[in-house]
Amino acid sequence: MIPLHEAQDAVLAGCQPLAPQLVAYHEMTGRVLAQDIVAPEDVPPFSNTAVDGYAVRSIDAHTTPVELRVVDTLAAGAEPKIAVGEHEAIRIMTGAPLPAGADAVVMVEDTQRVGETHVSILRAANVHDGIRDAGSDVRAGETVFVSGTVLNAAGIGVLASVNARTVRAFPRARVALLSTGDELVVDGSPLRIGQIRESNLTMLHSMIADTGCDVINLGVVRDDEAELERVLRDVTQRCDAIVTSGGVSMGDFDVVKAVLSKIATMNWMQMAIKPAKPFAFGQLTSTDGRVIPIFGLPGNPVSSLISYELLARPALRKMMGHQHQLLRPAIRAVLDTPLKRKQDGKIHFMRVFGEFGADGRLHVRDTGPQGSHQLASTAMANGLACVPDGQGLSEGAEVDVYLLG
Ligand code: AMP
Ligand code: MG
């Protein structure tokens, strides 16, 4: 058995960032920039009003109330045609350019209309009141994002506001996914003895998509070496990575093991963790000469999930240009229930549900049975507690918890 971090290092070393491509700004959700973004123009592009109100010369409105003559109305998008003169005001709407002469905007709530032609200013105005300056969000020439930044929704909005319509970014990895096992039923038909319903495909599809990848779901492949080899070779032309479920442990019909040993360079690992001891990582060369990483996950659903989380997800993130937080964040939590385990030389990843308490700390409790086939207790979990070798931890003890989503 090897320690988990050794397996993680080997997997990460075997996966390289994909070549950046040009991406339309509106397709940047969750993607990583592969260039710096320098703003070509000021945002906002001109000084404008932050409020609906009246543009005035503050000198005319230092002492209030005072009546000013309204000489024009400016909507957002309108171009000012005349300046504000002595004892004059211009009715103005949020976002409209500040007219010449004005140095303050009084919000409409602090005014009262007097007939058709005048307005009474009820609250004294100071220079710059109600005005947002050109470039006060982003200055022309400013580097708004550096290469490696992961754009959130606001970031994509900023790309639009600085007119960065096409940017260099790391692509979404195209991940081929397949499940193996003659016992697996996918089509909803009644189960014969020995058959079970397939669950990993749907689960892993969801996890891979959540990682930000495009999934090529190949479905269940029978435990047939020739068939599996054909499917794998065929998909290399249109994918960047392959995730398989099942067939990587010590069983007699572990066809994934047989086929991958033949067509790929593989590293068959036994990791000192539970669940998810067996894990396979390898590289396959596509017909067009690209190196395609392969993640061979064990078939037991919880083992599949945990090895995806701990090994495949970080590697796929690296391929998509992520440089930080490849692993889920871990946080030190307090146990509200004991976590019992046996000493076996492994780290146990135990399913827990956590909530922040009034003390500001994360409190976790186990979500039920911890067998590697018991997916239901995993569904209730929002964290994986990392329980070191030994007899387990008692209530009140501290434990590191990986936060799942
Ligand atoms: P394997 O890794 O192929 O030896 O499978 C280990 C266990 O996981 C067996 O009990 C399988 O029936 C079960 N299993 C394998 N693949 C799946 C799957 N896709 N969905 C649900 N259970 C599975
Ligand atoms: Mg199997």
State the helix count.
Answer: 7
User: What is the 3D shape?
Assistant: elongated
CATH architecture of the largest domain: 3-Layer(aba) Sandwich
Q: Which residues sit in consecutive blocks of at least 5 with pLDDT less than 50? A: none
Main-sheet strand order equals 7-4-6-5-9-8
Q: Give the total of domains.
A: 4
Mean pLDDT: 96
Oligomer: single chain
Question: What CATH first level of the largest domain would be assigned?
Answer: Alpha Beta
Strand content: 25-35%
Write a structural description.
It is built from seven helices and 28 strands. It has 405 residues and is α/β, with parallel strands linked by helices. The strands form eight sheets. Strands 7-4-6-5-9-8 form a six-stranded mixed β-sheet, with no helix packed on it. Strands 16-13-17-21-20-18 form a six-stranded mixed β-sheet, with helices on both faces. A five-stranded mixed beta barrel has the order 22-25-24-26-28. The protein folds into four domains: 4-18 and 172-319, 3-Layer(aba) Sandwich (Molybdenum Cofactor Biosythetic Enzyme, Chain A); 21-43 and 136-169, Molybdopterin biosynthesis moea protein, domain 2, CATH 3.90.105.10; 48-132, Molybdopterin biosynthesis moea protein, domain 3 (Molybdopterin biosynthesis moeA protein, domain 3, Beta Complex); 330-403, Beta-clip. It has helices at residues 4-13, 153-161, 200-210, 225-235, 255-263, 301-319, 375-379, and strands at 21-24, 37-38, 48-49, 53-56, 66-74, 88-92, 104-107, 111-114, 118-121, 131-132, 143-145, 166-169, 174-180, 184-185, 196-197, 214-221, 241-245, 265-270, 273-274, 278-285, 291-297, 330-335, 339-340, 347-356, 362-366, 383-387, 392-393, 398-403. The structure holds adenosine monophosphate and magnesium ion.
